[in-house]
Amino acid sequence: QVQLVESGGGLVQPGGSLRLSCAASGFTFASYTMRWYRQTPGKEPEVVASITSADGSTSYADAVKGRFTISRDNAKNTVNLQMNSLKPEDTAVYYCNAAGYGGIYYGQGTQVTVSS
């Protein structure tokens, strides 16, 4: 069955870095656009970064441009999110998402807390 498993979250001080990973299985990963989005209580989910299947084009939310980098490894069926210069407002549960011809799939999320 389809699985998206996020890892790499945790507690980090402002200005620090984290690298999130999402391991995918059960579908043709290379054919799917992959996204990272985040959610905090009381707020709408926010897509922070995406990477296409066709040419690996990336896009970012304005709030994270220049600080976050999304990448994918189609051989390993993984998508990563390198997060640098983290701010307290980056605190959220981060989810990976796959969208393609077979449907839309979601992971269970990983908590990122930025605090001193």
Cα gyration radius (Å): 13 Å
What is the element string, with H for helices and E for strands? EEEEEEEEEEE
Helix-and-strand structural type: mainly beta
**What helical percentage do the residues reach?**
under 10%
Distance N terminus to C terminus?
40 Å
Largest sheet: 7 strands, mixed
Number of strand segments:
11
Count of helical regions: 0
Mean pLDDT: 96
Shape: globular
Walk me through the topology.
Elements: E1 3-7, E2 10-12, E3 18-25, E4 33-39, E5 46-51, E6 58-60, E7 68-73, E8 78-83, E9 92-100, E10 103-106, E11 110-114
Parallel strand pairs: 2-11
Antiparallel strand pairs: 1-3, 3-8, 4-5, 4-9, 5-6, 7-8, 9-10, 9-11
In short:
Helix content is 0%, strand content 53%.
